[in-house]
Design a protein that fits this description.
Elements (H helix, E strand, L loop, with lengths): L10 H4 L9 E4 L10 E4 L13 E5 L7 H13 L4 E6 L8 H10 L3 E5 L4 H36 L3 H12 L2 E6 L8 E3 L8 E6 L9 H41 L10 H4 L9 E8 L6 H15 L5 E5 L4 E7 L4 H12 L6 E4 L3 E2 L3 H11 L8 E3 L4 H7 L3 H10 L7 H12 L4 H7 L4 H15 L5 H17 L9
Parallel strand pairs: 2-3, 3-4, 4-5, 12-14
Antiparallel strand pairs: 1-5, 6-8, 7-8, 9-11, 9-12, 9-13, 10-11
């Protein structure tokens, strides 16, 4: 099949017209299946400017008395995929020259001989009338198909089902294929970002095709548009589901079991069984990114955890995402899915709980959020592997707040706080401290004296233990992921 042809009217079919009942084919019989798109009278020796694919040329034969012109004509007629040559025999050619017949046979371009008294206009009118009638019939058929194809976008439940319905309506093989893949039929770009690297391919198996290439082009473009509408509908449905699930999880994180504003149809078919235990994953990008990046990361999170039926919500107050996955899921699969995210955003910190009951969502979330500072960027860390931070996070709040008040809260000067922290980190080793602080040894000694006066105690090993405990507790409880120590 040749998709570049624009008509289903063949030269052989034209011979059935009343206007050509006196016609005789004298050469080029192998080309009777050539398609005819229109007819035109040509009497010029140089015909290149006049030829178009599917052209049926009518001529008196005046320019064809020269054998060199004959050769030039048939060479160009073949090069431009013309249909045939209809010659009125009588005034200029008493008979079709053997040299011309040989050219017609070589190129399989039919030569049709008609009597001199047959008006050209009756032939051109018959051809064009048939083409117009076929065109009107085709486009009426196309309109009917377009209506059916559009309806499929509202009823199909998947992209595969949509392609199957397209194929059933059009009696063609319609499929989504990679853009780089070669296909035997025409292909069409789908105006939708979800399928940016794919194309819609149409393969009609009938030989010869009953459809013109304009028909197939319009049909393919319409199916590509309908596919885009289907994907847009699916995007909106997925977004409704995501929003409903986010509200759903958000209520549990607030320890609220009120479900009045949740539409189960939007939440989706997966039942949120309150008797099950669930993994909670808390993810943070560190410093709050722009809104556009937040949306981008959230889309990738949905894409990664959808196969595990994960519920995901963003908590703007804490700049975190919370993922809830049924504990029936294999923990290895969860880690595998997160690796696809961590590879794209290595700065993400993520921590996962042991399976917990729904009633413990709120308290578990707060606990995981405090531990995030100790998670390794780009990896998903199990909370139970962070033994020391886990112990610190569980210390009584009242006692720890009093300890902070009697230690770090007494040292408010930024330079002194920085000096005290480095003194703590370097274990009081003066040369190491001076490598990190661009100050003189005497300045360091004076700062440490001032710090001891503020604390009311000497900087001893015991004092260092209290300072470390208070600092670590603050790190875990005071916006840990966004906090950057001096």
């Amino acid at each position: 099949m040749h998709w570049e042809e624009n008509s289903t009217l063949t030269v052989e079919q034209c011979l059935q017209f009343d206007a050509l009942q006196q016609a005789t084919v004298v050469g080029g019989f192998r080309g009777l299946s050539r398609l005819v798109q229109f007819a035109h009278v040509v009497e010029e020796p140089d015909i290149e400017a006049w030829i178009r694919p599917g052209l049926a040329i009518l001529t008196t034969g005046h320019p064809l008395r020269d054998e060199s012109i004959q050769q030039k004509w048939f060479y160009q007629l073949n090069a431009y995929h013309a249909a045939c040559v209809i010659i009125a025999r009588g005034r200029y050619l008493d008979a079709i020259p053997e040299s011309m017949i040989a050219q017609a046979e070589d190129y399989a371009i039919p030569i049709i001989e008609i009597p001199w008294d047959v008006p050209f206009v009756t032939i051109t009118s018959a051809i064009h009338q048939r083409l117009v009638n076929d065109h009107v019939k085709d486009w009426a058929h196309l309109t009917q198909w377009q209506t059916q194809l559009t309806h499929t976008a509202l009823t199909a439940r998947s992209l595969d089902e949509l392609m199957a319905k397209f194929s059933a309506i059009t009696h063609a093989r319609v499929q989504i294929t990679p853009r780089h893949k070669q296909t035997s039929g025409p292909s069409f770009v789908i105006p939708q970002d979800d399928l940016g690297e794919m194309k819609l391919s149409v393969q009609i198996d009938n030989r010869p095709s009953p459809y013109s290439d304009q028909f197939v082009d319009q049909l393919g473009r319409h199916m590509a548009t309908v596919t885009s509408l289907f994907l847009l509908r699916e995007q909106m449905r997925r977004q409704r589901t995501r929003d409903a699930r986010s509200r759903f999880i958000g209520q549990f994180l607030r320890s609220s079991l009120e479900m009045a504003d949740i539409t189960w149809e939007d939440v989706g078919p997966w039942p949120f069984d309150l008797d099950h235990a669930f993994f909670l994953i808390v993810i943070s990008p560190g410093r709050k990114p722009p809104d556009s990046l937040i949306s981008h990361i959230q889309d990738i999170l949905w894409h990664a955890f959808d196969p595990l039926h994960g519920f995901i919500t963003y908590v703007p107050m804490h700049n975190t995402w919370v993922v809830v996955i049924d504990s029936h899921a294999v923990i290895r699969q969860i880690h595998t899915q997160f690796q696809t995210i961590g590879g794209q955003f290595p700065e993400l910190r993520a921590i996962i709980s042991q399976p917990v009951a729904v009633s413990r969502f709120a308290s578990t979330y707060e606990h995981l959020r405090r531990l995030l500072i100790h998670a390794t960027p780009g990896s998903l860390i199990a909370a139970n592997t962070l033994i020391y931070p886990d112990i610190i996070a569980r210390l009584p709040v009242d006692s720890m707040e009093r300890l902070v008040d009697t230690t770090w809260n007494k040292v408010k000067n930024p330079d002194l706080r920085q000096t005290l922290l480095i003194w703590l980190q370097e274990g009081g080793h003066t040369p190491s401290i001076l490598k990190r602080l661009p100050i003189h040894r005497n300045t360091l000694r004076n700062r440490l004296v001032r710090i001891q006066k503020l604390l009311g105690i000497s900087l001893t090993t015991t004092t260092a233990q209290y300072l470390r405990l208070a600092w670590d507790w603050q790190e875990i409880n005071d916006s840990p992921v966004e906090r950057h120590p001096p």
